[in-house]
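RECORD CONTENTS
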Amino acid sequence: MTNRGKWVLAAVLLAAGIVSGVLLGGGKNGAGRSAGMGMPRPMPVEAAPVARARAVREAETVGTLQADESVVIRAEIAGRLSAILFAEGQRVEEGDDLVNIDPAELDAQVRQSAASVELSRMNFDRARQLHAEKMISQQGYDEIATRLKESEANFALVQARLAKTRIRAPFSGRLGLRQVVTNVLALGAHRLPRLAALRTLGGGNERFRSTCLAAHEAHAGPSWWE
């Protein structure tokens, strides 16, 4: 082979090598790009074990809460206050004694009235026997029977007044400020403690009140009512 032929063969082999290199390099780059587009890089995540816990929802608001039941305790009869049986802010149940009025005078009236009833009943028994024997008139008999009814009614009245010397809670709730002291004369106009039923509250912010009632838990700052 002549020198010219050798140079032509070398040029052909060099060109073939360059073409092969370009083709192989392009194939690798395309495969890399395809792999990069088809499989994105994984994102980091945080994991924790599953556990049950209480979710607390808190809300703060300013408002006024009013009890659905509230009453000012007053004495129904006049008398000297002999005992105050509660503390300010105390929780009481329906029927608990709150205040006692001195019952000495009414006790005496009850005994006097009971004696009057006993005497009237004895007179009526004698009058009934005499009336059956036609020894007294119908008018006399009726008058004695009427006196017996009057004495019994008076006895019941005095007993009712005596029962009012013990002032009791009309319903369960919490008491307010004490307005009186012992050994003073209590009249119907005198205000004793205020009693409020706090089991159900009204007023305030309706949105947060419904939230608190649904959660069965609410906290309020201290306050006194009159």
User: Anything to note?
Assistant: DSSP finds four helices and eight strands in the chain. Strands lie at 66-74, 79-84, 91-92, 97-101, 166-168, 173-175, 185-186, 191-202. The first helix runs from residue 3 to 38. Residues 62-102+166-220 form a domain with the OB fold (Dihydrolipoamide Acetyltransferase, E2P) fold (CATH 2.40.50.100).
